[in-house]
Amino acid sequence: xxxxxxxxxxxxxxxxxxxxxxxxxxxxxxxxxxxxxxYHGTKLKxxxxxxxxxxxxxxxxxxxxxxxxxFYDDTTPFPHDTGFLKVVVDKSEVVNGTLTKTxxxxxxxxxxIALLDDENNDVKLEMGWFLPKEGHAFSDYFHAALxxxxxxxxxxxxxxxxxxxxxxxxx
Length: 171
Prior knowledge:
single chain; globular; four-stranded mixed β-sheet; disordered N terminus; mainly beta
């Protein structure tokens, strides 16, 4: 039963606490600037080299709602409630159960990505009896255990442009 409580608590990180506007929100960009981006990180120095991350989300079961990405680093590791970046992407771009997005402007560092498939776009995780009704995924990691994942399970070191695969899990 404690594993179930841990699993339920794990999903609570996916619920955005508030929408913030930051003056440095242009430090990170997405391939289509029309998406809502909330940035909580530190502003890059002009001389810092930046890299892109192409995220491929697979096994998405429908095109209803939005995909809510959260990016983490060593200063805001998972399950930090805001991470250093939140991006909300409409699922209208899903093709054959796959969504591909490229994000630009990341410095070289440890980081991780988690996402929620918010199918009804109500900014909260829908729960069944004990398990969530909506899907989740992690950067280059498929979570199969009933324990809560930890930052080290799905973190990576960004040292150049990177492609990350995120396979959706639904219960």
